[in-house]
Design a protein that fits this description.
Structural class of chain A: alpha+beta
Number of strands of chain B: 6
Helix content of chain B: 40-55%
Number of helices of chain A: 4
Bound molecules: adenosine-5'-triphosphate, magnesium ion
Helix content of chain A: 10-25%
Number of strands of chain A: 8
Largest sheet of chain A: 6 strands, antiparallel
Oligomer: heterotetramer
Shape of chain A: globular
Chain lengths: ~160, ~160, ~160, ~160
């Protein structure tokens, strides 16, 4: 199982539809300060079902929708789609490819889809639960966060081990 | 339940010992159960001895030594419980050139099992990459993706 | 007492506005009193608008934008209340090459009034230095100072 | 007023007597991870009278004394001396140069000296108080600490302004 594609539109600084295609191996993202690299990390977290806006560096969920710039007005919706390869049967679904989509409107309404079929947020959570992927555990290390595993209390470190168990 | 935790602890500890030596080029490190008789509640301590130095409080370690130790632990957990992919956002910003190189070599090793999406501008890490994406903001406030040629990368690398 | 605080606030705010524009090459920033009518107790908020972007929560800023903003505030306080010397331990680790250069230029400016002891391995900062010390641990666990020649620096710079 | 010289012996990783000479302007310190650069920052903080061992990254004050290495035994004392230029009369003392010395023995005993004359810790504190130097305020920014001024509460930021007042 590996990530094949990330499509972002209206999510944080990615006002226009943007597509990243991934292969197995090491994919590097470079760019100047403030260009949007960590926003890509946030987009992956978000589409996997992250519910804590603090982990997305925001104040309220609406903060992930493109807020406009000096030259552009804000948008009414953020959408992120993540396509994963499932040819190894990693996920208990019939498809060779699984696309998970999340949308948020300024009204506060949300859409969730798996392979274009509407579903609930918890379906996305359940799809990735027990895989050690994403929001829980240690597969997404945010900027400035690597030292955390050393500075947490011994009890918190224990829960990290429990997740690996 | 307690037995599963003990098993995981033993495996992660073994991996941690090995990865630590790989990254530090020596020394030793250990995960220690604070209360080995209370497997269901015990916390976990980290003991670190960089090569040639004495075992010390984690807090006395340098910024780079702490980052390298944290990376060793994360990689150890990845080894024991492989995740199909892993996103790393500038985790080596505190490492010097020599340590970045060891980190990049380790990453190349692990990349056979795990797909890594890495945000970095360190030369050693960039050289280990198979695919390169550049993010720009030519129009202020709006991010755009560009494909990156190798010469641009070398200019960007620090 | 309240008047002295108000005075300082006005001066630091003015300096902060200027240094921010110097470091970001544009944009604007402001220090705002949460409760202007309670000068003896009011907290102080920071409002930031990077060039071409909209004003946003500090938390939404990038790692580098936050570091640059923090540096602007610290330098602003140094401008209003000069300290004879200032020790900076790797404060630019999150800045890209272009921002490190602007930071180094600002440092050279301020260095006319203030002596800076800087720990860094960024090329831009190194080029602004007048004196260079190298710290090594040839004997493991024991630090030693060496004088550094320019070629060694260029090898070290990242 | 500027720093002229820092002499360190037995302080953290500086087992042997080490001398750094400073001029006005920008003095750069480089070196590999763990070589001792931040320990120099700690030495300056300590000799200026820092009493919080946490700010020195330790657990107990004894942690600043060289603890030994694989090849060397630990030492019984840490000593740091800082010499400042006073030709501008910045400090209310008669000398052109002022040297502040701090020693700590494993027994827990401490010595404090100003120009080789024994004094108390509070004499060192009072010498630097109101100068905006050192332990208080913003003249020493430790590793990983620059973001703090942004992440503290508005009230804490207020006290920073008060110190500049
Ligand atoms: N909802 C939004 N609308 C528009 N812009 C946003 C939104 N949320 C965040 N941003 C902007 O995105 C930028 C941050 O991007 P990001 O954190 O991805 O930068 P980065 O490339 O990781 O930079 P660095 O190298 O400094 O870490 C900030 O300037 C922020 O103001
Ligand atoms: N009392 C002590 N005795 C011996 N060694 C010590 C003592 N206290 C700290 N050290 C050692 O000093 C080293 C840390 O040095 P320091 O923090 O100055 O490194 P640094 O040069 O700043 O590195 P980095 O670039 O990673 O920040 C650690 O390896 C630590 O174990
Ligand atoms: Mg970032
Ligand atoms: Mg350091």
């Amino acid at each position: 199982m590996y990530l094949k594609k990330l499509e972002v539109q209206g999510f944080k600084s990615f006002a226009d539809k943007t597509k990243l295609e991934f292969k197995p191996g090491i994919i590097l993202v470079v760019g100047p300060n403030g260009s949007g690299k960590s926003n890509i990390t946030d987009a992956i977290r978000w589409v996997l079902g992250e519910q804590s806006i603090k982990s997305l560096r925001g104040d309220k969920m609406e903060d992930v929708i493109f807020a406009g710039s000096e030259q552009r007005r804000s948008l009414g919706m953020a959408e992120v789609s993540l396509t994963v390869d499932n040819s190894s049967g990693f996920f208990p679904l019939e498809y060779n490819e699984i696309t998970v989509t999340r949308r948020l409107y300024r009204s506060g309404e949300s859409d969730y889809l798996i392979n274009r079929v509407p579903c609930r947020l918890r379906d996305i959570h359940e799809l990735f639960m027990d895989t050690g992927i994403g929001r829980e555990g240690f597969s997404i290390i945010g900027q400035g966060k690597v030292d955390e595993v050393l500075s947490v209390k011994p009890e918190a470190r224990r829960s990290l081990l429990e997740e690996a168990a | 339940m307690a037995r599963k935790f003990k098993e995981t602890y033993v495996q992660v500890n073994q991996a941690f010992r090995e990865v630590f030596v790989q990254l530090f080029g020596g020394g030793r490190a250990e995960l220690v159960l604070c209360e080995p008789d209370y497997l269901l509640e015990t916390g976990v301590e980290i003991i670190v001895q960089p090569p040639g130095k004495k075992t010390q409080n984690l807090s006395l370690l340098s910024g780079g030594e702490r980052a390298l130790t944290a990376i060793a632990l994360l990689m150890a957990m990845l080894k024991v419980r492989p995740s199909p992919f892993c996103v790393l956002d500038e985790i080596e910003s505190n490492l010097d050139e020599a340590n970045v190189q060891r980190f990049a070599d380790l990453l190349s090793d692990f990349a056979k099992e795990t797909q890594f999406i890495v945000i970095s501008h360190r030369k050693g890490t960039m050289e280990a990459a198979h695919v390169l994406y550049g993010v720009t903001m030519e129009e202020t406030g709006v991010s755009r993706l560009v494909s990156v040629k190798l010469e641009d990368v070398e200019k960007e690398a620090s």
